[in-house]
Specification:
By secondary structure, the chain is of the alpha/beta class. It contains 19 helices and 20 strands. The radius of gyration is 22 Å and the shape is globular. The chain starts with a strand and ends in a 12-residue tail after the last strand.
Length: 516
Amino acid sequence: MFDVIIRRARVVDGTGNPWQRGDVAITDGRIAAVGQLNAAQARQVIDAHEMVVCPGFIDAHVNADLALLADPKFPGGLYQGVTTHIIGQDGVSYAPASPQTQAFYRLYFAAVNQNPPNLGEWRTVAQYLAQFDGRVTANAAYLVPHGTVRIEVMGLEERAPTADEIKRMQALIAQGMADGAVGFSTGLDYIPCTYAQTHELIELCKPAAEAGGVYVTHMRSYRPDTVASAVAETLTIGRKAGLPVHISHFNGLADQVLPLIDEGCASGVDVTFDTYPYLAGSTILAMVALPRWVQGDGIEATVERLWQRKTRERLHEWFDAPERAWDQIRLSAVSLPEHKHFEGMSVPDAARLAEQPIGDFVCDLLANENMVVGCIAFSNWRTDDDVRRIMQHPAHMAGSDGIYVGGKPHPRGYGTFARYLGVYVREQKALSLEEMIRHMTSAPAQRFALKDRGLLREGYAADVVVFDPQTIAARATYADGRQTAVGVAHVFVNGEAVLQDGKPTGARPGRGLKRS
């Protein structure tokens, strides 16, 4: 007798092959059988007639390193059928790390990864992964973050590392890979990753390559005038270090960026990428509102610098001609109660409400908030056609880049997977259902060496989703980014139901996954 049988479903196995009518059986946390199981019996039988059953979705890029632990229910992913999150993104996370390094990144990235108390203690990657076991509704796999190991060895110094420092960072990365990490990540817009030159990144990728990992990068730029050089650097790193590369949130102009991927593949580099199906991005306000020189030497030094009149005078030209127009930047997250009314407002509107020039408003807000301010950044140089064409590329996979902080978060955290299936499969028919599910399941499982996930195959881990293809939809909007998705009926993680008949069960079967 099986534990669970899901009967009469449209079985989409994750390979991209056409769906077939059949049943899926689960026993002891594993997929026990797939096919016509008419005579079989089970303790629980789910009639999934006209619904799709498929592997659980894998979020290839998400900022849930602390959010998963702080809110084990994690509704943003749960109601979309996400069963595994790839964390440690953008070169910023919390292992391997001393308490001092963790404290810096908890504050520096609090508007992205939160800064909740009482999560437990860890230093190593193995200890960090163990925090997820039996504590959350979904699994988590981890990338060793470049910025974290750089701070451990070099602090926040803006310089090239010595040969000895390279060796010490390599040792930390090698141990992180041995502890089960699936790769190595950089965030070349963030401190201190932005200080690294290409040679440093090549050398630090080598221990990840030796362990069979992947290099995952938030590149130096995604803008049309500089994206080609950023991709060229990424491909050079992969080629010289000898490992696959994966580009995070690769949103851009389809005519420009897709040939770069094809040229990389043709040159012998194993390159893939993820995207979310929205035109706006989201990050910390400091990254888009301040030049790099203001942010050196840590949070305390940056805040002190922002209060100085000489700093603001030097910034006048910057604020008058920003890289991104101020009216394209909307505040999404602040922490002080007296600033909460700014959430959801554009920077110019918030500055007018505060009766300040934009430069003084931005400096005051960041300094008073101790730099913990998040934003949504809109763009006017790409279209939905670019989004659609990029997702159609075979090297594409789904990544929400979800941020779960603030009163007005970007809707991608609560809507990416449901929006892909509702808008781009059902409505626009940009991809077939089967191919889109491949982009959400077996493609990321293969990329991140999760060898027993991503397919409905006998013996694989029973991460399984049942959803209605006619009703699945994202409800999150820029006005209300926390509305949960609809249309997912059942979610199993490691064989245990975490969502049943559209309602959370309270089960916590998630775990920290290690590279297979």
